[in-house]
Amino acid sequence: MTVVFDLDDTLYAEMEFVRSAYRAIARRYGLHLLDPMMRASSPREAFDSTGLPIADQLKVYREHFPDIRLPWLSLYTLSMLRNRGHRLGLVTDGRSVTQRNKIRALGLERFIDPELIFISEEVGSDKLSGQAFGRIMALCGENDKYVYVGDNPHKDFVAGNRLGWLTVCLLDGAFGENLFDQSLGGLPIENLPRKIICGLTELLDFDGFAKS
Ligand SMILES: [Mg+2]
């Protein structure tokens, strides 16, 4: 089985990255900026609180090497899946430099096959296009079984559903502060995950995950 993960708010809480960026901005432009940023209710509000040009803050936000850790339950799940012989991949939307820094900071290269890491800026199109998913199938073979685990029903499951993958949505319970709306009501059927989980370790109990 090939199990492919989204990155932000699936393998770690994206708010941890956001707070890391606030610390990097404060180190660069003044430590007094940190407290108001930490108390802001959104990144936008945090950037406004500093009075600095948005472009300067975004540059640090996107390019700093983040101080983030892989949560224990993610580490456990990834290593268990690897030990059981499954191939692991990553499909994430974002800038190459930002997502590559996160991957390195989280130590994901230990678990995830480098040729199965797809970042939208490098691919040239986002998840909805399905390009990264198609390339994974070309690499791993039409006869393999595929799973995609994500958190955002607006874009994470459309391509996988179309290609016959098992799509799995990790609900907010996992980290408690998801950056995006996860409500499934009112979404078209092609957006909906086939399964919903509240913690990554639930993957280990799925049929077919016991052994590859
Ligand atoms: Mg996500």
Bound molecules: magnesium ion
What is the makeup of the main sheet?
6 strands, parallel
Name of the CATH architecture of the largest domain: 3-Layer(aba) Sandwich
- Amino- and carboxy-terminal Cα gap: 6 Å
Number of helices: 9
The best one-word shape is globular
CATH C-level category of the largest domain: Alpha Beta
- List segments where confidence is low: pLDDT < 50 over at least 5 consecutive residues: none
* Topology pattern, helix = H, strand = E: EHHHHHEHEHHEHEE
Helix percent reads 25-40%
What is the strand arrangement across the widest sheet?
A: 3-2-1-4-5-6
The percentage of residues in β strands lies in 5-15%
Structural class: alpha/beta
User: CATH superfamily of the largest domain, called what?
Assistant: HAD superfamily/HAD-like
Write out key terms for the chains shown.
single chain, binds magnesium ion, 2 domains, 212 residues, HAD family hydrolase, HAD-like_sf, Rossmann fold, six-stranded parallel β-sheet, alpha/beta
Short description:
With 212 residues, the protein is an alpha/beta fold. The chain folds into two domains: 2-13 and 69-205, Rossmann fold (3-Layer(aba) Sandwich); 15-63, no CATH class. It is built from nine helices and six strands.
Explain the layout of strands and helices.
Layout: E1 2-5, H1 14-29, H2 34-39, H3 43-50, H4 54-63, H5 72-83, E2 87-92, H6 96-106, E3 117-119, H7 120-123, H8 131-140, E4 146-150, H9 158-162, E5 166-170, E6 195-197
Parallel strand pairs: 1-2, 1-4, 2-3, 4-5, 5-6
Helix pairs in contact: 1-4
Bound molecules: magnesium ion.
Magnesium ion binds at residues 6, 8-10, 150-152.
